[in-house]
Amino acid sequence: MPAEVRALASDADHQLAAELAAHSAELLRALRACGIDDPDVLRKQGDRRSHELLAAELAARRPADAVLSEEGKDSAQRLGVRRVWIIDPLDGTREFGEPDRPDWAVHVALVIDGFPVAGAVALPALHEVWSTAGAASHDQPPAAAGPLTGPPRLAVSRTRPGPAAAQVQQALGAEPVPLGSAGFKALAVVRGAAEIYAHSGGQYEWDSAAPVAVALAYGLHASRLDGAPLTYNNPDPYLPDLLIAHPDWARPALDAVRLPPC
User: Fold this and answer.
1) Which of these, 236, 248, 238, 127, lies nearest to 196 by C-alpha position?
2) Which of 19, 37, 134, 161 is least enclosed by beta carbons within 10 angstroms?
3) pTM higher than 0.70, yes or no?
4) Which 3 state secondary structure label does DSSP give 175?
5) Residue 109 in contact with residue 116, Cβ under 8 Å?
6) Annotated binding residue at 26?
7) Residue 65 marked ligand-binding
8) Domains of the chain, CATH where assigned
9) 91 belongs to an annotated ligand binding site
10) pLDDT 10s per residue in the chain (262 long)?
11) Whole-angstrom Cα distance, residue 55 to residue 49?
12) In what order do the strands lie in the sheet with 115-123?
């Protein structure tokens, strides 16, 4: 990410991302505690109410910025502005509707000129918010600190691990760590619960913008599976693959996914 683009995000932008993610997390915790028996009703309410909260706050506090939300109607207007907030109001809707599962998240990211310069990922069930603001203020320990030994832990989908994860597991002898939402898997690397998250098979920009912003702020590697930079606010928000890794494991993981599958 160009340093001049990173510098365009203000301290207030970093703080706003963290604040909004925390507010949405509080709403979703309260909703989950309401005792709604039908999990589909709970999931739909979670998606809708979290989106409405985030969209209203951004409209009030950043009226000149555009918004791309998984739960909102897309508009070509966002392609003509430099600053776009990319949000996933409830990442891991399936897990949100399952009692006692913690692996769901809220994503809030600010993208400027295509780069995720500020962001926050809330893990509401754990009462944690990881953000670029926290990284800058050293409120949380750097995830990339310290040498690593032994085989890496690999965050994988609990329901449908993709071919990239299988290649990394086979090539590096990685230990799979099955988890739910994309944000929770990415944050497993930030939090030191895994060393690699390799995804293939399809995602959208809202699935990774905030996790990538946070991962980069904490000194981790984040790229496409071919090593290319991740860019956002494209006309088509489909972004099919992703690698987030501890720096010591980034090159081995990239080499592993370039091998032809058996």
Assistant:
1) 248
2) 37
3) yes
4) strand
5) yes
6) no
7) no
8) 3-137 (3.30.540.10), 153-258 (3.40.190.80)
9) yes
10) 888 888 889 999 999 999 999 999 999 999 999 999 999 999 999 999 999 999 999 999 999 999 999 999 999 999 999 999 999 999 999 999 998 999 999 999 999 999 999 999 999 999 999 999 988 765 555 555 555 678 999 999 998 888 999 999 999 999 999 999 999 999 999 999 999 999 998 999 999 999 999 999 999 999 999 999 999 999 999 999 999 999 999 999 999 998 665 5
11) 10
12) 66-69, 83-91, 105-112, 115-123, 128-131
Non-local (6+) Cβ contacts of 80 within 8 A are none
Q: Tokens at residue 126, please?
A: 């754990």
For tokens 């966002």, the residue is: 78
Where b means 16+ CB within 10 Å and e means fewer, 153-176 reads bbbbbbeebbebbbbbbeebebeb
- Buried residues in 78-91 as b, exposed as e (16+ CB within 10 A): beeeebbbbbbbbb
Flag whether 88 is marked binding. Answer: yes
d(CA 33, CA 28): 9
Going by DSSP bridges, is the β-strand pair 175-179/242-245 parallel, antiparallel, or unpaired?
A: unpaired
90 is in an annotated binding site: yes
